[in-house]
Design goal:
7 helices, alpha+beta, 3-stranded antiparallel β-sheet, 176 residues, 2 domains
Length: 176
């Protein structure tokens, strides 16, 4: 997930929620008097306080002196959007669940919320059309993931999960 900060008097900033470090999550949780899990739930609901706190902590990486009272954007200047990896995950699962008889246009209509939530709506639309036109693979098939930067990486048994939506990774092992 990304927070898109679009100040009226400045450049648009994309702040990657998946890049939050443990110490930063602790700061955010402590300041909001909640858990990190609840912060992420509130972000998914476009909660202005959650977006502001996470954006502030991420902005402090490049502007260490910025304080909470100094960072008070308009509500409409902050939005949570899906990055390209999340778009691909959501769209792939959703298209697989849609009736085989649906036309690409019907699929687009049903999956409009994914397009609306995407940081790159045109990418989401094109991907959904591509997935809807492709024959369904009952085995799940494609292991390639695209990062928000647009780079592609193969998932391997030794590579860590790049998904912010999973608490497990492909490197998890049982311990005694």
């Amino acid at each position: 997930m990304l927070i898109v900060y679009s100040p009226a008097d400045g450049d648009v900033e994309l702040l990657d929620i998946g890049s939050v470090r443990v110490n930063e999550a602790s700061i955010i949780s402590r300041n909001m008097d909640t858990t990190w899990k609840q912060v992420k739930q509130r972000l998914a609901e476009d909660d202005p306080e959650a977006m502001r706190m996470v954006a502030l902590v991420l902005k402090r990486r490049s502007q260490p002196s910025v304080k909470l009272e100094d960072f008070n954007p308009l509500v409409d200047e902050l939005a949570v959007r899906l990055d390209k990896t999340e778009i691909k995950e959501w769209a792939t699962e959703a298209v697989a669940a849609i009736d085989d008889g649906a036309t690409p246009e019907q699929t687009l209509l049903v999956l409009r919320p994914i397009i609306d939530a995407a940081v790159d709506p045109e990418y989401a639309r094109e991907l959904i059309l591509k997935l809807a036109a492709a024959p369904k693979d009952p085995a799940g098939g494609d292991e390639e993931t695209e990062h928000p930067s647009g780079q592609t990486e193969e998932s391997t048994p030794t590579g860590a999960s790049t998904s912010g939506s999973s608490l497990t990774s492909s490197t998890s092992t049982a311990t005694a």
